[in-house]
Amino acid sequence: MAVKHIPTMCLNCSTVCGMIAKVEDGEIRKLEGNSLDPNSGGKLCAKGQAAINMVEDPDRILYPMRRSGPRGSGKWERISWDEAIKAITQQFRTLRKQKRPEEMVLLYGRDRTNGFLERFTHAFGTPNKLGHRGLCSLNKRMAIRTVIGDTDWDTPDFSNSHYILNFGSNFYEAHQGHVGMLARVSEAKRNGARLVTFDVRLSNTAAQSDEWLPIFPGTDGLVALAIGHVILRDRLQNDHFIQYWTNASLNEWKAYYQLYTPEWAEQESGIPAIKIEEIAHAFASAAPRATTITNRGTHAHKNGFYNEWAVLCLNALVGSIGEKGGWCYIPGDVNLSVPQPGPLPPKPRVQTELSHPTELPFVNQVYPRAASSTIFPYIAQKKASVDTLLSYYVNAPMSWPEGPTFVRDVLLDEDLIPFHVVIDAFHSEMVEVADYVLPDATFLEKWDLDARNSYELRPYVGLRQPVIPPPGECKDIRDILIALAKETDEEMAKYFSYDNAEHFIRVWAEAIPGGLEQLEENGIWEDKSQPKAYMPYLQKTTYSTSDSDVKTDDKGIARLIENDQVIGRQWNGEIVKGFSTPDRRFQFKLPQIGQLLKSDAPITPVYRPIKEHKHLGKNEYILTTFKWNVHTQSRTANQLWLTEIVGENPCWIHPRTAELYGIEEAQDFKILARGREGESPYMIVKPVITEAIHPRVLAISASFGHWQYGRTAKNKGYNPNPMIPNWTDDVGGGQSWNDTVVLIEQVT
Ligand SMILES: Nc1nc2c(c(=O)[nH]1)N[C@H]1C(S)=C(S)[C@@H](COP(=O)(O)OP(=O)(O)OC[C@H]3O[C@@H](n4cnc5c(=O)[nH]c(N)nc54)[C@H](O)[C@@H]3O)O[C@H]1N2
Ligand SMILES: Nc1nc2c(c(=O)[nH]1)N[C@H]1C(S)=C(S)[C@@H](COP(=O)(O)OP(=O)(O)OC[C@H]3O[C@@H](n4cnc5c(=O)[nH]c(N)nc54)[C@H](O)[C@@H]3O)O[C@H]1N2
Ligand code: SF4
Ligand SMILES: [Mo]
Fold first, then answer.
1. Where's the 4Fe-4S Mo/W bis-MGD-type domain (predicted)?
2. What is the Å distance from ligand 2's center to 136 Cα?
3. Which pLDDT belongs to residue 709?
4. Between 464 and which of 47, 221, 396, 448 could a Cys-Cys bridge form, CB atoms 3.0 to 4.6 Å apart?
């Protein structure tokens, strides 16, 4: 039989690269890149190519199952789909009839249905749809969404940049933009651009950079403020951008930055003041073709929101926002923005402590339902009442802070969570604590329309389609939700009147030129005639300064005379959109933080030292966890080729530190968490003694330490998460992964 080339989209990580599956006799022979993908341009990373292993994992879940022993006992009986759907919907009906739909909580990890899960929770009537965002990127998204308003994500125009200043993003190995980003940064470097990386480790990105600057954890914001100080002190700023496009005057910026001297930054971060001066000059002189990039090194901290904000301000200071080669962005949702087929269920009006935690009023206003790291503590403290937990594509006992310990205990407690349904493809640690398990099709066997922010700065749409049928009785998540909705009641069924997943996608794809047929053929739709969308804040509105119903004030803010509604900014005799903030300017001040938070949280970007890092004892270190190029979260440890490349995660330790404790290669040592209640969690780990790490930091990669997840994954490496406490940035709401204080002990 001829080999078929079937276009689809990878989902072995969230970068969603266009992919071509070469299929022969119903088997995938090879996975390659789709050159039509505007981001990845036909490249796949090792993880993408290894996804064949995922499909062929001998330990996949192939049938619906019900537990036949106590929860967590590992005893299962196979049941039919009919039985499973009937048992689950009986529970659903009770909750809906008794008018407590909010006691159904959907917890999910990697959702690329782009709206279908929300259709389900909205139709159900629960506001409790919680993703893993609170663990992932919330602090960054909160900062971008409040400071520029248009979006929650950056899309720098790397290929045209002359200077790229990287605060804690490891895009040569990870980052949501991975393949497409590194291709463009490499291109810029070939054209002479400079890449400077702050990281606590010599990551592969740091290694590919012109300079690696080993920074003390959690001090990136201070270094950014000190760079700003030099830019303003030496008059290298872009006066026009500051005066016209930000909500503070140049004098305010100057007065504010005066405090943040390079000398102070050197004391806290270890980055020499002279280096900060040098970077400030180089960054400003490359502007507007200069950009910053950030990720979890910057924001996965207790002060993450402010670190992000401080870095963002550097682009405002030199006026590189929206410019060719600068810090660009795509207004709107950076994921897929194809309108959903109707009818759409109304958004539930009820709010709960899970969807809107009282402790995080700023997050509730800007990003409701995103502060998901609170879910398990709140359930344990009975702040939230949960009857049914529906988990999808998420492995909380592995990947949540205190996952294998506290989170697993909460999930095992039938008083706290009476009913737990897990939709998974593998025997994960989440499946271990389920009552019912529904087998999902993997991404090579299912349908989605999908996209990410395109570095070509124009929209595109990709198709994920089954390249082989799902094995056993596995079903596409959309088919599962359609079946659940139809069986629950007629009111829910109304929003799920589709024969199956394919039918839904066909109707949805009608909004795209050429519809589903075009996508099935090419995998990608992109309108290449559209130019790169630079300077989105200068986009014209339908208003003009000469309109009789429009007034503008001395700051150029345009309003409707009738009701004072802000409509844009005055610009060359026209009214342009500006930024999507209340006064259409870049926010150097966020007064709402002061109004919402009774704490001392400042309303301008500041350096907020991490309390736990103050007075660090001589024997105390900061534990960092990071992502390898060949693994994704806890989810690829069952993919054989990848574990053959990296199959363990020893602990990186600086030679000077190792020497202090007499630690030698191949000799285990002990790391203890500092000052936690009860017995401190500890790990006994193997060292990698290397100068490629800050002397005050220990680093372990995530992805390993499974006690479930099948024969390939099980019992390899360590899971650091028992050591990592559930700490939240009280402003941004994100989990602080990179602040854990630990002690070292020799193992005798
Ligand atoms: N120590 C440490 N912990 C971390 C991080 C870190 O850097 N260090 N990173 C954090 C970050 S950024 C994130 S985003 C979170 C991610 O945390 P999670 O969202 O929990 O992601 P995974 O750990 O990959 O778990 C996803 C699970 O989905 C299941 N799965 C795999 N394929 C399929 C499928 O086709 N269908 C279905 N239904 N299920 C499937 C598997 O059980 C898999 O384990 O982890 C966080 N945890
Ligand atoms: N290969 C791979 N790719 C992935 C994923 C994956 O699991 N594997 N997951 C996807 C997801 S969900 C996410 S959220 C992204 C995450 O993408 P990234 O944020 O780029 O990756 P991380 O490894 O979480 O963290 C980045 C770096 O921060 C450094 N770091 C720690 N503390 C500090 C600090 O205080 N300052 C500085 N400057 N650096 C510090 C770490 O050493 C690490 O190299 O990747 C996505 N892509
Ligand atoms: S970066 Fe790799 S794993 Fe992620 S989507 Fe692209 S090819 Fe797949
Ligand atoms: Mo993430």
1. 3-59
2. 9
3. 97
4. 448
Query: Which residues is 734 bridged to in the sheet?
Result: none
CATH, range 65-136+340-446+472-509: 3.40.50.740
Mean pLDDT of the 311-321 span: 98
Distance from chain centroid for Cα 365: 19
- Percent of the chain clearing pLDDT 70 (strictly above): 99
Alpha carbon distance 568, 539 (integer Å): 10
DSSP secondary structure string for all residues of 317-360:
HTT-BTSTTSB---SS-SS--PPPPSPPPPPP----TTTS-TT-
pLDDT at 187 over 70: yes
Atom of ligand 2 nearest to the CA of 632: 7
pLDDT digits (tens, 9 = 90+) for 355-411: 999 999 999 999 989 999 899 999 999 998 999 999 999 999 999 999 999 999 999
Asked if pLDDT for residue 599 goes beyond 70, the answer is: no
Q: What is the pLDDT of residue 155?
A: 98
CATH 3.40.228.10 fits domain 156-318: yes
With a pLDDT cut of 90, the percent of the chain lying above it is 93
Ligand 2 binding pocket, CB closer than 6 Å: 13-14, 136-137, 167-171, 173-176, 178, 198-201, 203, 215, 217-218, 220, 295-297, 624, 626-627, 629, 631-633, 738
Structure tokens at 235: 């008059």
Best residue among 14, 17, 642 to mutate for probing ligand 3, ranked by most atoms within 8 Å of CB: 17
Handedness of CA 142, 148, 150, 153 (dihedral sign): negative
> Measuring CA to CA, which residue among 632, 703, 732 is closest to residue 300?
732
Residue type, 640: L
CA 136–ligand 4 middle distance (angstroms): 4
Hey, is 395 helix, strand or coil?
coil
Distance between the two ends of the chain, CA-based, in angstroms? 62
Gap between the Cα atoms of 64 and 84, Å rounded: 7
Task: Specify the DSSP element, H or E, that contains 262.
Answer: helix 262-269
What stretch of H or E contains 651? strand 651-653
Q: How far is the CA of 559 from the centre of ligand 2 (A)?
A: 42
Please state the length of the chain: 748
**Of 505, 501, 433, 434, which is closest to residue 470 (Cα–Cα)?**
501
> Where are the domains positioned within the chain?
65-136+340-446+472-509, 156-318, 540-576, 611-746
Tens-digit pLDDT profile for residues 402-461: 999 999 999 999 999 999 999 999 999 999 999 999 999 999 999 999 999 999 999 999
**Residue of 191, 145, 143 whose CA lies nearest to 167:** 143
736, 311 contact by CB (below 8 A): no
Give distance in angstroms: CA of 179 to centre of ligand 2.
14
Atom of ligand 3 nearest to the CA of 46: 2
Look at the pTM and tell me if it is higher than 0.90: yes
Mention the CATH class of domain 611-746: mainly beta
User: Average pLDDT over the chain, rounded to whole?
Assistant: 96
The ligand minimizing its distance to the Cα of 717 is 1
Collapsing DSSP states into helix, strand and coil, what is residue 726? coil
Residues 744/657, Cβ–Cβ less than 8 Å: yes
How far is the centre of ligand 4, averaged over its atoms, from the C-alpha of 219 (Å)?
Answer: 21
Name the pLDDT band for 598 (thresholds 50, 70, 90). low
